[in-house]
Amino acid sequence: MIKFYQMKDFFQIRNKMRCLRKRSTVSFLGVLVIFLLFLNLYIEDSYVLEGDKQLIRETSTHQLNSERYVHTFKDLSNFSGAINVTYRYLAATTLQRKRYLTIGLSSVKRRKGNYLLETIKSIFEQSSYEELKEISVVVHLADFNSSWRDIMVQDITQKFAHHIIAGRLMVIHAPEEYYPILDGLKRNYNDPEDRVKFRSKQNVDYAFLLNFCANTSDYYVMLEDDVRCSKNFLTAIKKVIASLEGTYWVTLEFSKLGYIGKLYHSHDLPRLAHFLLMFYQEMPCDWLLTHFRGLLAQKNVIRFKPSLFQHMGYYSSYKGTENKLKDDDFEEESFDIPDNPPASLYTNMNVFENYEASKAYSSVDEYFWGKPPSKGDVFLIVFENPIIIKKIKVNTGTEDRQNDILHHGILDVGKRIILSKQIRQCDTYLRLGEFKNGNFEMSDVNQKIPFDVYCMRICVTKTQKEWLIIRSISIWTS
Predict the structure, then answer these.
(1) How many Cβ atoms are within 10 Å of 118's Cβ, its own excluded?
(2) Does residue 220 contact residue 213 with C-beta atoms inside 8 Å?
(3) MF terms per GO, please (predicted)?
(4) Domain that holds residue 125
(5) Residue range 338-367: mean pLDDT, rounded
């Protein structure tokens, strides 16, 4: 394995080459190729991920200069090795066992405000005792100012000593000598030099944090150092991960802001760390995360609502500028993600494009969309196994299409499966109620029906001229 100090030497060589580039035809591609060869990464010219190239063209407005060459990688498996960095443990006890989730934070000195202590406090206060057993928090104090680090370590150890002793909180620092040169970098997007330096260092800060956290847990979630958490966020995350069992994903998003609430498999962290180091000066971290997801063939964003994390900082870590960004999908109080047991979905409505029936039943931010339904049209859910339902909630329409609701409809539950026209459905149904203003909600369903439920059916009772969006179907079981 190549030592990291060799990588640093290369960064110095590359900076010298940047000066030569002004007087020669050496392109960014040439530098990239040398970099890849130096790291013993294998480029296979015969293997081109055409689908990924098209994906990046279609879904991202922030292009890597070397994009068409990056996609000649067969995969990113050559990035799987750890980066050789000797970390300083500023406050930590030995981690006794691997946890379920690691929460990673990187923090630097701010000109105005400091929210790190409040962020750590929110993580622990919003977690139950049982949840605390399954999480670890790693804070990377990434500022090179040792006096500031000493003050922060003192504050953290005073306020969270019992969490440090319990192995739930670790404070680390990657020494400056492991960083690449951060001066005289390329000024992409016409950013001022100091901003390029700030965001480039931030990429390296996160790379070293990811590298450290690779073996501490099964999953990793990235937060910023000015974040407020939702109550029992870990339980919500576990439920979402369980619902996606058997499906492929690279990144799950629990906030729509920046790099807040981005969840990864821990086995992907070394590759992501190497990726951030490779392109540390090209663009901000959140843009690079989008490219990383695409390179690993996750086509679409998988984001969940309500958001579990909220940006609370008022002043940015860059120059103390104002940053009032808020996630309007965030809910701080505890909320219950539905169980939505395995089921097959059918409809005889005219489906628009790829907004198929299954999307209404998914916990992901997507929906079913059909052309104007007629009286007698149905939307049917057939469960793999009979269930006892505690609560049902169905929402139609969206904020930007508030009239695409079910104006007239009822909801039934059924028992005894039969096979009709190659579709499994129930032979007997019991009506639970009508939709009101496009929505249906009922609690204590198990106290209102005398049987286990095999089917649930939405029926249109009057033809409408408006299209129909079924935004979400949520079912809680006992």
Answers:
(1) 15
(2) yes
(3) acetylglucosaminyltransferase activity
(4) 79-311
(5) 87
Are 236 and 190 in a shared domain? yes
Residue, of 300 and 157, whose pLDDT is higher: 157
Statement to judge: residues 63 and 85 lie in one domain: no
Percent of residues, the chain, with pLDDT higher than 70 = 75
- 382 in the Ramachandran plot: left (φ > 0), alpha (ψ -120 to 50) or beta? beta
Whether residue 333 lies inside any domain: the answer is no
318 has a pLDDT exceeding 90 = no
- 328 located within any domain: no
Asked whether residue 114 is domain-assigned, the answer is yes
Is residue 378 domain-shared with residue 262, that is, in the same domain? Answer: no
| Per-residue pLDDT reduced to its tens digit, 67-91 | 443 443 444 555 567 788 899 999 9
Tokens 């026209």 appear where? 421
| Global model pTM greater than 0.70 | no
Residue with tokens 């001022």: 192
pLDDT attached to residue 78: 56
> Which of 323, 318, 474 is closest to 393 using CA atoms?
474
The CA-to-CA distance between both ends of the chain, in Å, stands at 52
What are the residues whose beta carbons fall under 8 Å from the beta carbon of 380, sequence distance 6 or more?
A: 345, 346, 347, 423, 425, 455, 456, 457, 458
pLDDT of residue 61: 39
Q: How far is CA 280 from CA 121, 181, 193, 371, in A?
A: 30, 11, 14, 47
CA distance 399 to 305: 14
The residues near 400 (Cβ < 8 Å, ≥ 6 apart) are none
How many domains does the chain contain in total? 3
* 63/114 same-domain check: no
Mean pLDDT confidence for 465-471: 95
Q: Of 55, 77, 99, which residue sits at a domain end?
A: 77
Determine the length of the chain.
478
Whether residue 323 lies inside any domain: the answer is: no
β-strands 262-265, 217-222 pairing: antiparallel
- Of 77, 105, 137, the domain-final residue: 77
Q: How far apart are CA 293 and CA 249, in angstroms?
A: 9
